[in-house]
Amino acid sequence: MPELPEVETVVTDLRPELTGRRVRDAQLGLAKMLKHPDPVTFAARIVGQRVAGMRRHGKLMAIDLEQGDGLYVHLGMTGRLTVCAPEEPVLKHTHLVLALDDGRELRYHDPRQFGRLLFGTEVELRRAGVFPRLGPDPLGGDFTFGRFAGLLGRRHRPIKAALLDQSLIAGLGNIYADESCFAARIRPTRRIQRVSVAERRALYGAIQTVLQKSIRNRGSSVDDYRDGFGAPGNHQGYLLVYGRAGAPCVQCSGPLKKVRLAGRGTVYCPRCQR
DNA sequence: ACCTACCTGGCC
DNA sequence: GGCCAGGTAGGT
């Protein structure tokens, strides 16, 4: 998917477009994308409401509505959330269209259908068991070094597996987990218990700078990702390890190595990362 | 702490 | 036809 920088780009794109708009109509094409509530209740509750704002935690977006509930959107691997004019052709795999009171539409498009839509208050969604358990957002104010070092603990699993675990830290995916490990010079396969405090400090800083740089470039469009207006990001050409297996390391010129870790393709420099 | 399933599409 | 892909939940 879209990881934290891509989701952040979508949110900053859409927030000014959606805030203050009223939802005139809701058309849910593929009911299974909506995990809660049922489609009829969803339409009855969202139509007529005004958008109060938009935010994100990790990769989960929230479109907050005036009555205190909201539409939560997770883009999965191939989701797109865009605003456009109604005359724009509706792409195949468009699963939700919200008509807005300025005449435009908010559309959710997702070929692989790995994304999810949730509607309600956070309390309601937690009670229904459909709200994801998310650790701190690495760009949030509560992401202190103490908290990061603590949540890693001294487990046995590889450091990259922990970085991908959204219940520990919310927002890193396969691209930025690899990029963060490279920036911190830590091999992604290293067991957490073997990562020193100094290295955790390096990784803590690396995660934040890696994400911030990508946000400045409006995220990476490796394949399907598009911003809130349907345009690709610009960061894909600046990735140092992801997608560069076999290519020379930018530090030492040695070939980057690819392995499978936690079920995911993982690229690192065997010389620079120990 | 893994492993598989869930989907479609693109590439070899 | 088989393999791979930015993610996550659910089961072992």
Task: Give structural notes.
- The protein is built from seven helices and eleven strands.
- It is α+β, with helices and mostly antiparallel strands.
- It has a five-stranded mixed sheet.
- The chain is globular, with a radius of gyration of 20 Å.
- The chain binds a DNA duplex (12 and 12 nucleotides) through helix 6.
Q: Taking strands numbered 1, 2, ... along the chain, how are they ordered across the largest sheet?
A: 2-9-5-4-3
Q: What is the mean pLDDT?
A: 96
Tally of DSSP β-strands:
11
Give the number of helices: 7
Order of helices and strands: HEEHEEEEEEEHHHHHEE
Largest sheet: 5 strands, mixed
What would you call the shape? globular
Give a nutshell description of this structure:
The chain is of the alpha+beta class and 274 residues long. Helices cover 27% and strands 22% of the residues.
